[in-house]
Amino acid sequence: MKTLWTPWRMGYILGEKPQGCLLCIKQQDPVEKDRENYILYRGATCYIMLNLFPYTNGHLMIAPYHHVASLEQLDDKSLCEMMALTRVSVAALSKALSPAGFNIGMNLGKVSGAGIADHLHMHVVPRWQGDVNFMSVFAGTRLIPEALNVTYDKLLPILTKEVSHTR
Ligand SMILES: [Zn+2]
Question: In the annotation, is 121 catalytic?
Answer without folding.
Answer: yes
